[in-house]
What we know:
By secondary structure, the chain is of the alpha+beta class. The protein is built from 3 helices and 2 strands; from the N terminus they run ααββα. It has helices spanning 24-34, 36-57, 107-160; strands at residues 62-71, 92-101.
Amino acid sequence: MARGDEVVYHVTDTTLALPDLPPLAQAVAAALEARPDVMGAREDVEQGRLNEQVARNALLPALNVAGTLSAAGVARSGWSLAPRGVNEGHKLDWGIGLTVSYPLRAKLARADLSEARATVRLSELALESARNTVQLEVRGAYRAIVIERDRLALQREATRL
């Protein structure tokens, strides 16, 4: 180019188009479903509730059913409903028993239930803490993206002018 030639600059915007942001509530909900720390805390709560149910069941009465069947026994000890000595060839003996138990002074079972309830409450608090952390992180990132988009739009306008 010669010294007196006029140079003309053409400014064009060559940046890529930015994708639209999902609504904030949708972004938070997606993060809450996908984050492993929230999923782990949710599973801890479910496991704690299951342990609490097992501890609660230890305080309930229990009914046990037992049955016996013996072949080739001739001696009798105890009570049985089975017919005996009907035929010499059949020496079957059977019995059925029921046992009902009710826990009296179940201090250990009550202590286990109290501990299970406390563990469930702690895991629920840990879940809420994890959810709050995720919401704060997503809101902060969302806010940063919106601010950077606005800054980019202002910079594009300044470049165009």
